Amino acid sequence: MAGSLQDQLLNIGVADKKKSKKAKHDKRQDATKSRQARKSGVKATPKEIQQQLDKARQDKQQKDLALNQQRNSERAEKALVADVRQIIVTQAVEIPKEAEVAYHFEHDKKVKKLYVTDEQQKQLTRGQLAIAIIDDGYRLIPDKMAEKIESRLANMVIRIQSESVSEEDDPYADYQIPDDLMW
Fold first, then answer.
1. pLDDT, tens digit, for every residue of 21-55?
2. 143 vs 15, 39, 124, CA distance in Å?
3. Is 150 helix (H, G, I), strand (E, B) or coil?
4. CB of 164 closer than 8 Å to CB of 126
5. 88: closest CA among 158, 30, 34?
6. pTM of the entire predicted model
């Protein structure tokens, strides 16, 4: 019968490999700590070693807990983005291929252009439609869906708010500007 008792127990199936590896690992760590203590000239008592081990375990548990919280928050963020993507894809208003009206809007401090139909342009200016950002592209969605998405992830929606200038300060208030004016 060659081999250690531990190997024999593993062979007959009484013990499992995980526990065996953990026991060997703990034994090596204890031996290393005692060697280091001897080198430094300080004799470590078993009580001190146990305190160090307990502290190391507590530190590891705290790190694991923080890592788990981070992973959970990342999962929640991914789920939220997936949910918003699903809303955008299912509720998107189709822009026909023959849309010729260029609608200009601001995104990330840059002016972007989206080709829409005349009716869609009017709905955008009235605030009935909003622009959703998805996969580096843009889709039109109803304003109610935009509110829902904005409450979850505000950076995925561009809502056009009609800016009304107060009539007292507006020097051009007497002049009529047509709604369908194209620049």
1. 888 888 899 888 878 777 776 565 788 888 889 99
2. 63, 72, 9
3. helix
4. no
5. 158
6. 0.54
